[in-house]
Amino acid sequence: MAPHELKSLVRTIPDFPIEGIQFRDITTLIGHGEGFAATVDWLAERVRGSGAEAIAGMEARGFIFGASVAAKLALPFLPIRKSGKLPCETIGVDYALEYGSDRLEMDPASVVSGQRVAMVDDLLATGGTACATATLLRKAGAVVEHAFFVIDLPDLGGAKKLSECGVATAALMEFEGD
């Protein structure tokens, strides 16, 4: 499927979670077998070209795409979790949100020092979660230079923020506005 066909599978829900936001809902994309497969293929091709040795996905929708790409490429998948979700000893990083803060955690033993890790997620907005993920992975010893997204919202500046964090980005599709 062509990128414009895949983009047409993403449902827009106005005024969610608050008034004025156009929520880009990927459940309609992952619910379309051919569209989901084509999206995973697109991501896998870019990850393969990046030389990644593992894939990290951020909770929760990054698990859907990241784990699918990891399985397709027979690479390890590194789940980046919200605080308190892992039963083992973890390392973490706190990061700022628009109205507060949050924390991401991971098992530090899941990364081999110097391992090249690509990040995969469904959506790039402000880049805050992705930059925090890169910081966390680097803290564990990973080399993080690439992040791949299904959707980019370029007006929110996430790609610029990730570039400032030393991470190159690519996205299958873009939506203007919030």
UniProtKB/TrEMBL annotation:
<dbReference type="InterPro" id="IPR005764">
    <property type="entry name" value="Ade_phspho_trans"/>
</dbReference>
<feature type="domain" description="Phosphoribosyltransferase">
    <location>
        <begin position="43"/>
        <end position="147"/>
    </location>
</feature>
<dbReference type="InterPro" id="IPR050054">
    <property type="entry name" value="UPRTase/APRTase"/>
</dbReference>
<protein>
    <recommendedName>
        <fullName>Adenine phosphoribosyltransferase</fullName>
        <ecNumber>2.4.2.7</ecNumber>
    </recommendedName>
</protein>
<dbReference type="InterPro" id="IPR029057">
    <property type="entry name" value="PRTase-like"/>
</dbReference>
<comment type="similarity">
    <text>Belongs to the purine/pyrimidine phosphoribosyltransferase family.</text>
</comment>
<comment type="pathway">
    <text>Purine metabolism; AMP biosynthesis via salvage pathway; AMP from adenine: step 1/1.</text>
</comment>
<dbReference type="GO" id="GO:0003999">
    <property type="term" value="F:adenine phosphoribosyltransferase activity"/>
</dbReference>
<keyword id="KW-0660">Purine salvage</keyword>
<keyword id="KW-0808">Transferase</keyword>
<keyword id="KW-0963">Cytoplasm</keyword>
<dbReference type="InterPro" id="IPR000836">
    <property type="entry name" value="PRTase_dom"/>
</dbReference>
<dbReference type="Pfam" id="PF00156">
    <property type="entry name" value="Pribosyltran"/>
</dbReference>
<keyword id="KW-0328">Glycosyltransferase</keyword>
<comment type="subunit">
    <text>Homodimer.</text>
</comment>
<comment type="function">
    <text>Catalyzes a salvage reaction resulting in the formation of AMP, that is energically less costly than de novo synthesis.</text>
</comment>
